[in-house]
């Protein structure tokens, strides 16, 4: 199973000023697998330590932060001689806060060693006061499999190739096929175990069972890891996301979570925990489309999305029969599935910052505004082939952006600065806008 993040790991390996690498991401997005695959395919050998399952190694890091002693202890534990050309893997590193701190000393004293670490609750641990080696680590985020990764997994690498190469004649020719696969992806999603099951069995019932088990595992994590004072609020927030997205106006409303005077200050810690664990995306409203958009975000106006469109479909109980009903899966819940997909594809890109925009009257709203390098690109999401986009037209007239994007089920077309982009091409958005 090919994951695009491997290219980022290769760039890290080749970097002269390489630092220990932290891989962030929710549980079950494939962090452990990609680290081991990286070790198997790109190094003569690797050593693997899981801090949740090895108390002895945790004790070692509690007693010393000296890299030479730590490496010696790791050699004894793994029965391998560790050399700079090997990969050293620290998994679930948040379970041993001292190991996070130790990355600073690996950076300073052993810069020629290849150290990769990951943790499902790494962001949570850092926000809870773990001593973080600022400036001494590199970082990447790992997400569920994108639509193109899904295509690769089901054996359609040639379709990926024509999308990546922007071969529009062939893309138009296979438009219906790509749309059918996109429909399937909306149901299956991008969790690696679920995708592997679908690839092997093509059994949607098994797909749904696995998704429900993953959702159950996440809820179990709540009770084991969330502080008691925010546990109830985090659970309510998590359960409310499908309801929030099913509204016409998808702006998050606290009263939808708890009608009894729910206030932002009461729920902000719960939102932060869910974000840090990688389970949700928060898209904030921007006051105006200016660089950097992070400087123009409003704290209390936002939308919340889940990490994976397949898990959203499972959480909403979407029936498999919608796969047979044309574009219904795209339009269900007032297009929530489609917006979730678009946000997911945008968020998977490390260099894209995402917000949304609305005018003061509230009668014009653009679903997403993406900062891509020095470009600020408004993106209107259409769940079908009806391409009326009054809000996008209003935005275009007001701000005169270099590019506008309308993502839908229609074929690709460019009219002046407006790009009508098929949903299945979102991963190639930057290439489309910057092509000669």
Lay out the secondary structure.
Blueprint: H1 5-14, E1 21-24, H2 31-42, E2 46-50, H3 55-63, H4 67-78, E3 87-91, H5 97-109, E4 114-119, H6 122-127, E5 138-141, H7 147-153, H8 157-164, H9 168-173, H10 175-188, H11 192-201, H12 204-225, H13 228-245, H14 264-276, E6 280-286, E7 297-306, H15 309-315, H16 328-347, E8 352-358, E9 365-372, E10 375-381, H17 390-399, E11 404-408, E12 413-415, E13 418-422, H18 429-434
Parallel strand pairs: 1-4, 1-5, 2-3, 3-4, 10-11, 11-13
Antiparallel strand pairs: 6-7, 8-9, 9-10, 12-13
Helix pairs in contact: 7-8, 10-15, 11-12, 12-15, 13-14
Give an account of the 3D structure:
- With 436 residues, this protein is α/β, with parallel strands linked by helices.
- The chain has two domains: 5-141, P-loop containing nucleotide triphosphate hydrolases (Rossmann fold), CATH 3.40.50; 147-434, no CATH class.
- Helix content is 47%, strand content 17%.
- It is built from 18 helices and 13 strands.
- Helix 13 (228-245) packs across helix 14.
- The longest helix has 22 residues, at 204-225.
- The mean pLDDT is 94.
Query: Structural class, from secondary structure content?
Result: alpha/beta
Give the total of domains.
2
Major sheet attributes: 6 strands, mixed
Query: Helical proportion?
Result: 40-55%
Categorize the overall geometry: globular
What's the gyration radius in Å? Answer: 22 Å
Poorly predicted sequence stretches spanning 5 or more consecutive residues: none
Strand order of the largest sheet: 8-9-10-11-13-12
Q: Compute the number of helices.
A: 18
> How confident overall, as mean pLDDT?
94
Q: What is the straight-line distance between the termini?
A: 32 Å
Strand content: 15-25%
Task: Report the count of strand segments.
Answer: 13
């Amino acid at each position: 199973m090919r994951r695009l993040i491997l290219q980022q790991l290769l760039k890290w390996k080749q970097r002269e000023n390489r630092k220990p690498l932290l891989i962030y991401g929710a549980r079950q997005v494939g962090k452990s697998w990609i680290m081991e695959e990286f070790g198997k395919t790109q190094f003569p050998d690797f050593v693997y330590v899981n801090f949740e399952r090895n108390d002895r190694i945790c004790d070692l890091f509690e007693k010393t932060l000296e890299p030479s002693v730590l490496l010696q202890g790791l050699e004894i534990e793994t029965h391998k001689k560790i050399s700079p050309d090997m990969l050293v893997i620290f998994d679930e590193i948040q379970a041993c806060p001292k190991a996070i701190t130790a990355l600073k000393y690996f950076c300073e004293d052993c810069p020629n060693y290849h150290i990769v670490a990951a943790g499902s609750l790494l962001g949570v641990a850092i926000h809870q006061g773990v001593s973080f080696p600022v400036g001494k680590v590199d970082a990447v985020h790992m997400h569920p499999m994108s639509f193109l990764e899904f295509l690769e997994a089901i054996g359609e690498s040639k379709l990926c190739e024509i999308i990546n190469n922007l071969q529009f004649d062939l893309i138009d020719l296979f438009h219906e096929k790509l749309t059918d696969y996109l429909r399937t992806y909306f149901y299956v999603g991008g969790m690696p175990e679920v995708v592997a099951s679908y690839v092997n069995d093509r059994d949607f019932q098994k797909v749904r069972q696995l998704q429900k088990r993953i959702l159950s595992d996440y809820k179990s994590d709540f009770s084991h890891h969330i502080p008691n004072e925010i546990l109830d609020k985090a659970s309510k927030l998590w359960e409310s996301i499908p309801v929030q997205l099913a509204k016409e106006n998808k702006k998050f409303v606290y009263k939808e979570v708890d009608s009894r005077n729910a206030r932002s200050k009461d729920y902000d810690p719960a939102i932060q925990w869910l974000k840090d664990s990688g389970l949700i995306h928060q898209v904030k409203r921007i006051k105006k489309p200016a660089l950097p958009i992070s400087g123009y975000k409003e704290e209390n106006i936002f939308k919340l999305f889940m990490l994976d469109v397949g898990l959203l479909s499972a959480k909403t109980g979407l029936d498999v029969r919608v796969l047979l009903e044309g574009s219904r899966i795209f339009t269900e819940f007032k297009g929530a599935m489609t917006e979730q997909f678009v946000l997911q594809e945008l968020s998977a890109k490390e260099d894209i910052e995402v917000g949304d925009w609305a005018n003061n009257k509230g009668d014009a709203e653009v679903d997403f505004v993406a900062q891509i390098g020095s470009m600020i690109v408004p993106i209107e999401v259409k769940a079908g082939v009806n391409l009326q986009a009054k809000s996008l037209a209003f935005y275009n007239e007001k701000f005169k952006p270099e590019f506008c994007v309308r993502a839908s089920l229609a074929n690709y077309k460019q009219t002046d600065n407006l790009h009508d982009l098929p949903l299945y091409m979102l991963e190639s958005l930057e290439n489309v806008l910057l092509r000669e």
